[in-house]
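Entry type: protein chain
Record version: 2
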Amino acid sequence: MATVILVRHGRTTANADGLLAGRSLGVGLDAIGRTQAASAGERLSVVPLAGVVSSPLQRCRETSQLILDLQGGAPATPVDEDITECDYGDWQGRTLIDLSQEPLWTVVQAHPSAVVFPGGESMAAMQARAVAAIRRHDAIFEDEHGPGAVWVAVSHGDIIKSVLADALGMHLDLFQRINVGPASVSIVRYGPHRPSVHAINTDAGDLSWLAAVGPVADAPVGGGAGTQRPRQTGA
């Protein structure tokens, strides 16, 4: 299958203020978030992208544009509601300090599969729609561009964590063990037998090897030789 690069949006004004923005409108990147997103775009500039799929929320659209600004080609730019932020319902717009006093907070930390946000959606439904959307786009990009296609999905922390948990074969109740920082890059390839997770929560490092990935093969016994290009040393 193709390769999906999962990028969380850069830091926002709400992140900096400790607010749960949820699906609130008008929440954009702050100065640090723009720098973070531009850095992610610079890392990805060496990879010809078949597409950049974005959550419809402003912070993701801004992050997507900073990635697209450094692409030499013309990637597809669909926007998909299915990778938008979790619907936190009545929790939206409240401070994390305040929310941490709610009885449901403990359930979110320990048993997210049982969580239904008051006036919002369940975390299980969030994961189901997000995973289905990522797999759907992945199949489309492979069909249109071949098994070497590389594409980006720009989304939100809990969305990306839930997709990574699925790819790792983890129960949703364990997904809080995964960290996904602002403008971080995670990499998944969906093969014929299982997904293969190549990176989680990276904010530095050479990604040029993605420009030359081949079809997904069986997992190498013993770990294989890796994908990173050997570093050149001086004479």
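Comment: The first helix runs from residue 13 to 17.
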